[in-house]
Amino acid sequence: MKTLLVITVLALPLACSSANDVAMNEHYQRAVIERERARLDAISEIAKQGEAGAVAAAMMMSNTTQSHAAPNSGKDSALAWAGILVPSLVQATGIAVNADVARTNSNNNTTIATTNSNNNKDIAIDTNSTMATIAESTIVTNTSTTNSVVCVTDATYSCD
User: Fold this and answer.
1) CA distances from 110 to 38, 100, 120, 149 (A)
2) pLDDT digit string (tens) for 40-72?
């Protein structure tokens, strides 16, 4: 992104008018003036003929407007290329940034899922251990003392 900014700043002086551009525009304006003067001279010569049709034609020709193509310099070409390249570069940068955000988001989601899974595993182990301890304490259902021997009985074992 910094590179794009530096290139843009360095290219700005290239887009300014040079002495050659000023001379080219001056020659262009002179050519337009000379062409228009020649056109009007031709119309006035037609009008001098005196015929009604020639005068009408001269009047119609004088009312038409002429468009002149402006000269193009290398800077015009550079500007056209910049108009193509800059949006493409901006779009490519946006795509790269969005891909990086998506990648980071995916990595964060993976870390969260792994942490939650490990927490659930630890909770299950602690719960199983606690339940096993509770079960060991409640298995003893009957204790009897005979001849100084302690007998512990449950549903599957009897002292008999």
Assistant:
1) 79, 15, 15, 58
2) 787 777 777 777 777 777 777 766 666 767 777
pLDDT of residue 133: 75
96, part of any domain: yes
Residues 83 and 133 in one domain: yes
Asked if residue 76 and residue 64 are part of one domain, the reply reads: no
Give the residue numbers spanning the domain of 27: 14-68
Two tokens at 111? 């870390």
Total number of domains constituting the chain: 2
Q: Whole-prediction pTM value? A: 0.36
The pLDDT tens digits of the residues spanning 87-117 come to 999 999 999 999 999 999 999 999 999 999 8
Q: Are residues 62 and 103 in the same domain?
A: no
